[in-house]
Amino acid sequence: MNLIGHYINGKETPGTSNRTSDVFNPATGEVQAKVSLATVEEMNQAVEIAAKAQPAWAATNPQRRARVLMKFVDLLNRDMDKLAECLSREHGKTLPDAAGDVVRGLEVVEYCIGAPQLLKGEYTDSAGPGIDMYSMRQALGVTAGITPFNFPAMIPMWMFAPAIACGNAFILKPSERDPSVPMMLAALLEEAGLPKGILQIVNGDKEAVDAILENETIQSVGFVGSTPIAEYIYSKGCANGKRVQCFGGAKNHMIVMPDADMDQAADALVGAGYGAAGERCMAISVAVPVGEETADRLIEKLVPRVEKLKVGPYTAGNDVDYGPVVTAQAAQKIAQLVESGVEQGANLVVDGRDFNLQGYENGFFIGAHLFDNVTPDMDIYKQEIFGPVLSTVRAQSYEEALKLAMDHEYGNGTAIFTRDGDTARDFANRINIGMVGINVPIPVPLAYHTFGGWKKSAFGDLNQHGPDAFKFYTRTKTVTSRWPSGIKEGGEFSIPIME
């Protein structure tokens, strides 16, 4: 049995806790590895090593740091197939989707190669008589990230790439469900020239999370996961004086107007709702057609598309639409929520409850489900299902549809499909949600913009990647400088003002 340890000071290091967690192959249900769960002492040791390595890395000029990231991009492209296969084996994603996971992280690394430009400060010449003022963006020191199972390549790179580009050291606590890809990324970064100790991978569970939050050396913490844990990490991290950004759950609505291209809308909903088995924080899980006729037309288009979805392991080829969910517990929770939808009166127009994949009966596969006539009081509407389940909530007007999305506690992403520019502009301006798609079902911003939701989907005032990342991982220092000129002598005892 393969035992996965940690990546400390430039090498894979066995764990010492004698505590492990099973790493499954979601397609077969078999335990394919065990991952060590760190102790507080192991976490603190990793932080201590990072703290010793960080000052020299911060003193390395930004252009040389960027060259390490340039080489890292080359190595990611070289090992793309290997990374995607490992990711699929532990997570269950199809190979094309797994490669996309890596590429969306790689794109953020490419953006961070521009660190020399992004880290430039400001300068004011002659702010006063003989006085110059300038600002500097300086690294925080040791930073940390806690990342989820659903994007084991992308989200770690969204965090550690800007942190490292800014001159920080980084402690990554990835999900214990699929830890191998983060370990591979750390090895590739060292091959690219990153000094030992700058990126440390410490695998673990809540004990490791709390060790991060309690460690006084760690200056900032990033998190992506469920909202209850996001609230916990945000409150505890801030209470301990850390800079914290946390991204939580989602319930993303897609409004379909009567004038929308219904085939386009149906294709978008199927891809956005069922891709990656629905295990995406930007998945569309609620379709909101406006008007009964629109709803009937949309359901008519959706049913055959959903029924034709091909579910299978990543080894079955690139025509598989989605694979298993990550664990048996996840599958059980999805099944329970589907049953609650039926019991609470929703119309299950595509019923995937009896789905069974021959030869993979022990795998964590879930058939596709499509609900119609869902209402806002139902559990399948209120909760994030994180599975291949699409709920249709019929709205009688645009204003009712808009209110549904605006009243929900989550505000990660949303979309509208329409041919009307006035409606689209009004929707984009009024909606209280962080990422908006107009005829785009999954509006994940590109690397040079920022990613972040509103309401209970995000905690903190700065988003992920883009310009916000360079603000999050640096502090601004402002210097006021005057060199003695002999023009004035003696002390001044009042607050100086500019004349």
Q: Would you count the extended β strands for me?
A: 23
- Name the poorly predicted regions: none
Gyration radius from CA atoms, angstroms: 25 Å
Number of helices: 16
How is the CATH topology of the largest domain named? Answer: Aldehyde Dehydrogenase, Chain A, domain 1
Strand content: 15-25%
The CATH homologous superfamily of the largest domain is termed Aldehyde Dehydrogenase, Chain A, domain 1
Q: Between the first and last Cα atoms, what is the distance in angstroms?
A: 75 Å
User: What is the CATH architecture assignment of the largest domain?
Assistant: 3-Layer(aba) Sandwich
How are strands sequenced across the largest beta sheet?
15-16-17-14-13-19-20
Structural class: alpha/beta
